[in-house]
Amino acid sequence: MPIDLTDFSREELIKLVRMYAKGWLAMDGCWFLGLEEEKGIDTAIRYDTKAWERFSPIEAKRIMKEFKIPKEGSLDSLEKALNLRLYAQVNDQEIERPDDQTLIFRMSGCRVQDARTRDGRADFPCKSVGLVEYSRFASTIDPRIDTECIACPPDPHPKEWWCAWKFHLRNPSKMES
Fold first, then answer.
1. Is residue 92 part of a domain?
2. Count of domains in the chain?
3. Host H or E run for residue 146
4. Which comes out higher in pLDDT, residue 2 or 144?
5. Pairing relationship of beta strands 92-99 and 145-151 according to DSSP bridges
């Protein structure tokens, strides 16, 4: 029988969530590396992109349901949802709101890229995957959100962050209707 989570302290639950998030990311990495070893990086990236194309809307919908985030809730809904993703528990991220129609998201610490750096490997070229991942996640939250990559490996990027994404809300006047 599973452990009753209601017996856990707040600190234990936080530790458990972070452990689960790290386990999810490790499984994703092991799957990817196994495929890369068998079929090469191009094939692994192609399959990874397909997986994120399917997973991103699922994750967005679950977050919206569990945390009562309204669909078409604009960039406010996206900001809340980005902070509730599994990644938010294992990576360092920053969000900036330069105006009402724009959200800038930066991944300042990435476990995948940090591990590659420690191993003396080149940046993982995740831009093609990220384009699908972030655009599908954002459009599930609100179809009026357009996603643009500011920079993501293999693009050059500053040392302060690994990737950055710009989300723009189209037709904000429709938010009132």
1. yes
2. 1
3. strand 145-151
4. 144
5. unpaired
